[in-house]
User: Fold this.
Amino acid sequence: MQNTNDVNTESNNKKVAFHTLGCRLNFSETGTISQGFVDRGYDVVEFGDQADVTFINTCTVTDGADSTCRNLIRKAHRASPEGKIVVAGCYAQMEAPIIAKMTGVDLVLGTSEKYKVFEYLEEDEIDTIHIDKSADFYGASTSSSEGHTRAFLKIQDGCNYICSFCIIPFARGRSKALSIEKAVAEAKKVLADGFKEIVLTGVNIGEYESSSGEKLADLVRELLALDGLDRLRVSSVEPNTLTDELLEVMKSSPKFMDHFHIPLQSGNDEILTGMRRKYRVEDYKRIINKVITAFPNAGIGADVICGYPGETDEQFQETFDLMKELPLTHFHVFPYSKRKNTTAAKVDNHIQHPVKKSRVNTLRMLGESKLRMFGEDQVGTKSEALFERRNKEGLWEGYTTNFVRVYVDSNEDLKNQIRTVFLDRSDEGKVIAELIN
Ligand code: SF4
Assistant:
């Protein structure tokens, strides 16, 4: 497996630095673009080091992501005043003129145009803004550019839903998907590079069927049959798209990991209706039940938004109670963030910032204690862990099948190794494991 983080200080090659914000899909896309630079003879250096090109792959899900992006541009310019700065992705797609005016920015590329960065950099006179609203699908698979040992394979992009709070359909357009044939070919490439685990990514993977005309269940079945693939996960699946057939296929192979991410957003039906989500609380409960019946030890992540316009204390309490009651293990809690042009931004009963903050903190604390309890519950059991890196304390870190992070003390080189481990104890929330030979 090629490590694109490797820095060759002796080399006279041009240097490129990356920073990725946002979702796994963005990380997957940065991986592909990073490999494109390496193939053209660039060395990848740390973000913030002097570089000929700095590539920032942006996100626009929250206000915070927007301002982080602007800070990163300033940092990149300070590090490489002569270097070229390329700002790409969702925030670039939405706010190109603002970004293009910032000092040091040479290229602003939308969600599909970012793959053409090499062509644009070669132009004698660079046109700064390239945004294509009729974006086609660009498949992508990642390398280890962000230090992961999992390959993120993009099979879908865009979204046909119109959740009232979400800017993504504006930034990434309508749903598009990679055919099964192409996705399998991409998967074979990353396996040939030495990856053992693939994570299927997309904006709304459940829309795969409606966009490609082929069934997601069939794609998962074909991938599970691939020689050389040890582990398969899906990054996030909308609850209304997790069909019985899909669950059956997932359950049919030990290669499919007992780990899911199923967005909830709110535990109150009125709020879910306002959000234009395609399920209600009872539907969500039923789906989680099905998952736990099929995978009794599953780790289950869920996104939730606190302080959606009009959310009362009682409605927030219902979300809290639901998340406490359900076997959810990995919480992703966000304050509602007003995004220009979305339906939710236009209503007038927005929640005060301190209220949102306090609700976020309350749910995050619940999430931390549930994650800790989940890890403690696994103590005394065995699992297979894929190891990613040795940390500063000298312990190897890896993830079990159900996404419990484990720490192992070993002199062996465990990077990218799948090993059977015994989860020995929980030390202040860290699950300490031992290798079983
Ligand atoms: S499903 Fe809803 S929240 Fe997810 S990307 Fe589509 S519109 Fe946004």
Notes: Residues 15-130 form a domain with the Rossmann fold fold (CATH 3.40.50.2300).
